[in-house]
Amino acid sequence: MLTTQPSHTAISAHTCRPGFFFNTFSNDAYLEGLASVKNTGLADAIGVSNFNAQRVRHASKVLAKSGVPLASNQVQYSLLYRAPERNGVLEACREAGTTLVAYSPLCQGLLT
Questions:
Q1: Per-residue pLDDT tens for 76-106?
Q2: E strand or H helix that includes residue 53
Q3: Which terminus of the chain, N or C, has fewer Cβ atoms within 10 Å?
Q4: What single string gives the DSSP state of each residue in 57-107?
Q5: Are strands 70-76 and 99-103 parallel, antiparallel or unpaired?
Q6: Would you state the pLDDT for residue 40?
Q7: pTM score of the predicted model
Q8: Alpha-carbon span 16 to 29, nearest angstrom
């Protein structure tokens, strides 16, 4: 059975690394573990990357049970690639109070 302890233990061991990223989580136990990490003061915020609208809403609900907001969702977004406006990701982030963080906002230099 998957528990939240491995997430908490792994992050506790790496607190000396600022900006630590914990990736490839897809189930509630990982999110609950990250909420525990936030609530114990080992992290300032919990953010995700490349979550679609459904996953943003779900993660926000799971984290909210522990009193933790979903701080950010980093997705590809630029003047040329505006999919988050059409696929519901931007709206889901707004609903959840989650900051949408754009990666590749200059289209890998194309807009410079």
A1: 999 999 999 999 999 999 999 999 999 998 8
A2: helix 53-64
A3: N
A4: HHHHHHHHTTT--EEEEEEE--SS--HHHHSSHHHHHHHHTPEEEEESTTG
A5: parallel
A6: 95
A7: 0.78
A8: 24
Task: Please answer whether residues 105 and 78 qualify as being in contact, where contact means their C-beta atoms are separated by less than 8 angstroms.
Answer: yes
Q: What is the DSSP letter of 3?
A: -
Beta bridge partners of 39: none
Integer-rounded Cα radius of gyration of the chain:
15
pLDDT tens profile 24-40: 556 899 899 999 999 99
Average per-residue pLDDT for the chain: 86
- Output the pLDDT for position 26: 62
Which helix H or strand E contains 47, and what residues bound it? strand 46-49
Q: 29: part of which helix (H) or strand (E)?
A: helix 28-39
Phi, psi of 25 (to 5 degrees): -105, 140
39 in Cβ contact with 64 (< 8 Å): no
| Alpha-carbon span 69 to 72, nearest angstrom | 9
Domains in the chain, start-ordered, CATH in brackets?
5-13+26-109 (3.40.50)
